Amino acid sequence: MKRLVILGGGESGVGTALLGKAKAYEVFVSDRGKIKPEYKKVLIHNEIEWEEEQHTESKILNADLVMKSPGIPDKVSLVQKLKKNGITIVSEIEFASKFTTATIVGITGSNGKTTTATLTHHLLKDELNVGLAGNIGDSFAQQLLVKNYENYVLEISSFQLDDVIDFKPKIAVITNITPDHLDRYDYQFEKYVKAKFRIAMNQTSDDYLIYDADDEVITNHLKTNPVQSILLPFSLKEEIENGAYFKDNKLIITIDNNQIIMPTTSLTLEGKHNIKNAMAASTVAHLLRIRKQTIRESLENFQGVEHRLEQVLKINKVQYINDSKATNVNATYFALESMDAPIVWIVGGVDKGNDYRELFPFVNEKVKAIICLGVDNEKLMDTFGNMVDIIIETQFMSEAVKIAYKVAESGDNVLLSPACASFDLFENYEDRGRQFKDAVRNL
Prior knowledge:
Elements: E1 3-7, H1 11-22, E2 26-31, H2 37-45, E3 49-52, H3 57-60, E4 65-68, H4 77-84, E5 88-90, H5 92-97, E6 103-108, H6 113-124, E7 130-134, H7 140-146, E8 151-155, H8 158-162, E9 171-174, H9 189-197, E10 208-212, H10 216-224, E11 230-235, E12 243-247, E13 250-255, E14 258-263, H11 272-287, H12 292-301, E15 310-315, E16 318-322, H13 329-337, E17 343-347, H14 360-366, E18 367-373, H15 378-384, E19 390-394, H16 397-407, E20 413-416, H17 429-441
Parallel strand pairs: 1-2, 1-4, 2-3, 4-5, 6-8, 6-9, 7-8, 9-10, 10-11, 11-12, 16-20, 17-18, 17-20, 18-19
Antiparallel strand pairs: 12-13, 13-14, 15-16
């Protein structure tokens, strides 16, 4: 019996444990932190051995295979020991994909991957038997066990791609690549770019890679590191022969001379970046032969993703917008770009080596006040202090929203778009977004 050790008892860990047990592995789950009560119940109910708040090396270094949670960096000494012992380390995506013949759509990118994955699933679900998993919702491994869909849309982070070996999606999507998580890649952008491109490394000439042709990082990497797959670029700037482009408020998608044209005037999602997300998702739908009418209707009734430019409430003609999912500068760039009204901007958190320069034009033009919400706001104060009339620090969401309420005038937008990770004052970006929404509702 092969021994499968799982590091991390979260959603992907517990899903993998269940799938591993069903596939006759001897399974052991080890978490250095506390395992959430709901996950513990599942492990106990399924008689899977587990430990928390420690890693017992003698029970881990005897593994045949290790599935490591994407949150654990390679630098950790336990991971180094496993590698030295020649024990294979995989991500949940790699492990689970061995047990399915489903058609897989894998979506990665620095920004837009959740929206693109959710939208793609939304476009496919009326006509195909399809699951949504990966970095989102229920784990891929667990869905294979319980639902066993014929198709999967997977949102995949670079951390999950770091530990793939044979994983090969039929359709891969790279939304964009901008500096993010560089702390995990020795502050070398090229390493991060290579991690993203692992999504296509096993693809053959029967597979497809959909990507943003306007993103120079992607196009330059493809020039020097060609892939085997059929390329289907999308662009806002140029006409694309095989792929998708945007012209005269229409999306034009061509695959093997088969063209569909979609008007975008009634798209519910706002902003240029969302037109790109819609192009990527519609290209997948067109590839998988979803009817044009279905694609059009689904694009029109898509509600978007929680914590991503989510309109919360309008109070005294001021719109409050929750963009807590903007955990890097580029995501905040899109948010500021899409705003038409003057902005009271709530920003801050754990800075991952951010360069805020690309935001300067928008801040000068649109932002009237900045509220810094983090444990350490010094960099934000230094960077933006001279650009706006009002810049205020706080460490409480409730206070940040009260200050915004005082500063904002009729017709303004109050925008939470932190450009930073959330782990200083909040559990995660969802917690941060919910606290914002609660504070707004309590005004």
